Amino acid sequence: MPYIPNSDADRAAMLTEIGVNSVDELFAPIPKDIRTDGPLAIDPGLTELDLREHVAELGSWNRPAGTRPCFLGGGTYNHDWPALVDHLQSRTEFLTAYTPYQPECSQGTLQWIYEFQSMIAELCGCEIANASMYDGASAAAEALMMASNIKRRKRVVVSAGLHPDARATINTYVKHLNIEVVEAPLVDGVTAWGDTVNSDTAAVLVQQPNFLGTVEDLDAVTAKAGEHDALSICSLYPIATGLLRSPGKAGFDIVVGDGQSLGVPMGYGGPHFGFFATRQKFVRQLPGRLVGESVDTEGRRAYTLTFATREQHIRREKATSNICTNNALIALRGCVHMAALGPRGIEEVACLSRQRALDLADALPGATDAIQLAFPDRPFFNEVAFRATGGDVAVTRLKNALAAANIAGVIAASQWYADLDGVFTLACTEKTRPEHIERLVQVASETFQMEVAL
Amino acid sequence: MNHTPVPLLFEASRPGRRCTRYQGANRTKAAAGLPAGELRDAPPALPEIAEQDLLRHFTILSQKNYAISTQFYPLGSCTMKYNPQVNEAIASQPAWAHLHPLQESGEVQGALKLMHQLQADLAEATGLPAVTLHPAAGAQGELTALMCLRAWLNDQDQPDRRTVLIPDSAHGTNPASCTLAGFKVQSLKTGPDGLTDMDDLKSKLGPHIAGLMITNPNTIGLFEENIAEICELVHEAGGRVYMDGANFNAIVGVAKPGDFGIDMMHLNLHKTFSTPHGGGGPGSGPICVTEDLRKYLPAPQVIENESGYLLATPSLSIGRVRGYHGNFMVLLRAYSYIKRLGAEGLRRVAENAVLNANYLRVKLNQHWRVPFDGICMHEFVARPTKEMKENGVHTLDIAKRLIELGYHPPTVYFPLVVAEAIMAEPTETECKETLDGYIEAMIQIAEEARRGDEALHKAPQNTPVSRVDEARAVKDPKLCFTCG
Ligand SMILES: Cc1ncc(COP(=O)(O)O)c(C=O)c1O
């Protein structure tokens, strides 16, 4: 059998030692009437060769976006990473270790997590960061729950510009804790806080840049939150910090986000990793694992999991979160990638992504009257919202035409924002080439010229 | 292991060193049109390291780890089995790795078909027909199922049933998930036989009970023999039964939870279904539930219709608990594992896991106290003898001495119901010689402990660092480089 080393002779010898006649006798504690008769209705096993061919055949039914010009964004971006990242993820000493509960034989994992925490804290502009969360959406939900605990208030304000999946996740999580979620709407592509924040509010949550690509005014958030002694939380696209300021430096109390843009394959949406950074004074309220520096009995520098009394395995029903397994290996990718980028690299990626988006924002409305910028007065980073005069019908036309031209792109906004008929987003990264933009613009102009001709 | 001290990347950083470069960036152009207040003055102070030094840094770090690929790693409850290389090779293919989560279903039929088949195979293995692949790990699976339970209770006009019973041997995520789902926890006693105390259960059932969360086999490594009766009692009292499926490796192909009365359970694909633990994740925690609970499952589920496979939201779905569709790249590995093994292979997994665990148990029970010494499932709990304790030897010392002898220790101090627990799970992918080597090491340590050998308190001495001062890490917290 695959992956099982024991031979029949081994099994016989072991059964003798145990003092039973058959493996079946070992299942005696399972009452007969609840045991499964006969084999499971699962196909017989394949050889490794047949498995590889079978999965390759299945894979041939996919048209991966990342291997062709890709303008899809919406929280997951087609960024590049060096070969180093893939190689180090596949180091089996990282890949096949468990959570570093025994520090003496886990210094490798512990040190890279400490370095990961340090680099994430730097990007976020915060004092501390944890070892990772599942993803950006659940990290946002955990941040709000943490704020509610700190402030002992049961109301949070969330920008409608937060990723729709994160908003949905928040709603699912906090429903059971009697926390009221108030949504601040987007007006002309940017969050309109109005009088949503009041003195019952535990936290105000904004996404930078928001789901439609607009760069939000961070000071507006900290001012609103400060006025009512609420915490300010930012869900951050980490690549943007190559060009934009770090929210922690702008006064935010908690900074979370999805780390996919830091060297993680889009992977049909997961696993990515979530990150979570905050102030040192909130360390005891933090969810998830945390690595700290200490010394061993000889005084040598050593790393260890720390502040475990927050966590489920110690605190059980009083834990700050139920998270146990997090997304370590994917965070390792992020760690290697951040170090490989360095200050200049992350700035280059941020600038290139923004420059390409500027080119696109210029070229597309220039080529066809059927498309305009959706929010012409709003600043964007690498993702641009456009409006098709023909509404969602035109958006679908464009999407199909791009697919036919082997270009991945167009996320229609109206599936989440009912009032945004005809609005769609396109995103650029350092992998976007000028010729990709030319082709996209050409397909768009042909599509809508034909429409006019019809 | 590699003993070379490795400076932090920040310490090794030198201005001007580079690894990744991209061409054509122009900060002035990029900044034009952005509000001046949102721009930063200088790029983030990430370390500046050259490529080879970066490779060496992380490679040496990797050599400071114990891992399944380098040694026996019998960490109980964690199922540290072989993580097949072919699954990693498959997961690196662009046909999977480069799929964007918001692609139209027509462009991802291969991925959706795979998920659909995985849902079906997990339903078959658990006997629970409705499956969601959405949760990110076991703990999130627990939480998701408990939220479904609350939705069901509300629909039954029973919103005041707010108490969930949990045996005192349960993993910490069980009670933590209950709190997050808005339930109160009431603890159940473990009886002298290591099983859930039936009288205690009966006395605690009542109209306030939402359900029971039970781990089977339990964390002592014993199959809850009365499970069918337990489920019946909870159902009669108006509650539902959740099974923590972390230990499914012991019974896959042998018994289906749906057949013994379980209503909901999670699977840790990073345990039973061989996906790597990666130093603490990522995992994947699908949940499998009875047909009547399908409508509450989180969005999305994969369904099939005339036009192919698509993502759909169940009618009374609790909503999402994370972004997108689940940890797809983990699902891909688990799918590959199931296809490689097939029905027969899966049953052999359980058989050999249980065989290996019982072999360890009988070979060690003369040297250690094994409090529940009947046939075990895939793992068993031992502890130091009275004599060892009188010598001042604790489980922590045993664990550290094992490290010194080249073994990753079992899970220690868990389950909480056994003081000084040493819980070992060998898994089916270890050969007899490896088990024999571990047995020898444990016998040697038992002798040292009976002698009260001082060296035990100093172990390990041959690792990159010796015992770490954990109190100091809290008293004088240093949690990242820049905050000092
Ligand atoms: C018995 C048991 N239940 C639940 C969990 C939690 O699973 P996860 O770590 O995947 O969240 C674990 C694993 O650590 C476990 O051993």
Keywords:
heterodimer, A: 454 residues, alpha/beta, Aspartate Aminotransferase, domain 1, Aspartate Aminotransferase, domain 2, seven-stranded mixed β-sheet, four-stranded antiparallel β-sheet, 13 helices, 38% helix, globular, B: 484 residues, 3 domains, three-stranded antiparallel β-sheet, 16 helices, 36% helix, binds pyridoxal-5'-phosphate
Q: Which series of helices and strands of chain A comes N to C?
A: HHHHHHEHEHEEEEHEEEEEHHEEHEEH
Structural class of chain B: alpha/beta
What is the terminal separation of chain A in angstroms? 64 Å
Identify the CATH architecture of the largest domain in chain A: 3-Layer(aba) Sandwich
Instruction: Kindly report the oligomeric state of this protein.
Output: heterodimer
Structural domains of chain A: how many:
2
CATH superfamily of the largest domain in chain B: Type I PLP-dependent aspartate aminotransferase-like (Major domain)
CATH architecture of the largest domain in chain B: 3-Layer(aba) Sandwich
Total number of beta strands of chain B? 12
Secondary-structure content class of chain A: alpha/beta
Give the overall silhouette of chain A: globular
Largest sheet of chain B: 7 strands, mixed
- C-alpha termini separation of chain B: 28 Å
- Rounded to the nearest angstrom, the radius of gyration of chain B is 25 Å
The averaged pLDDT of chain B comes out at 97
Q: Helix count of chain A?
A: 13
- The stretches of 5 or more residues of chain A where confidence is low (pLDDT under 50) are none
Order of helices and strands of chain B: HHHHHHEHEHEHEHEEEEEHEHHEEHHH
Outline of this structure?
The complex is a heterodimer of chains A (454) and B (484). With 454 residues, chain A is of the alpha/beta class.
What does this structure look like?
The complex is a heterodimer of chains A (454) and B (484). Chain A is built from 13 helices and 15 strands. Chain A has helices at 8-18, 23-26, 48-59, 83-89, 92-95, 107-124, 136-151, 164-175, 218-227, 312-315, 328-367, 391-404, 434-453, and strands at residues 128-129, 155-159, 180-184, 186-187, 190-191, 201-208, 231-236, 254-258, 274-278, 291-295, 301-305, 371-373, 383-388, 411-412, 423-427. Chain A folds into two domains: 65-76 and 343-453, Aspartate Aminotransferase, domain 1, CATH 3.90.1150; 83-338, 3-Layer(aba) Sandwich (Aspartate Aminotransferase, domain 2). The longest helix of chain A is centred in the C-terminal third of the chain and has 40 residues, at 328-367. In chain A, strand 2 (155-159), helix 8 and strand 3 form a beta-alpha-beta unit. Chain B is an alpha/beta fold and 484 residues long. Chain B has three domains: 11-53, no CATH class; 85-341, 3-Layer(aba) Sandwich (Aspartate Aminotransferase, domain 2); 345-475, Alpha-Beta Complex (Aspartate Aminotransferase, domain 1). Helices cover 36% and strands 10% of the residues of chain B. Chain B has helices spanning 9-12, 27-31, 51-62, 85-91, 94-97, 109-126, 138-155, 173-180, 198-204, 227-236, 328-364, 386-390, 395-404, 432-451, 455-458, 470-475; strands at residues 130-132, 163-167, 184-188, 209-215, 240-244, 264-266, 287-289, 301-305, 308-312, 380-382, 411-412, 422-424. In chain B, helix 4 packs antiparallel against helix 11, helix 7 crosses helix 8 (173-180) and helix 11 (328-364) crosses helix 14. The interface between A and B is large, with 201 and 204 residues. The complex binds pyridoxal-5'-phosphate.
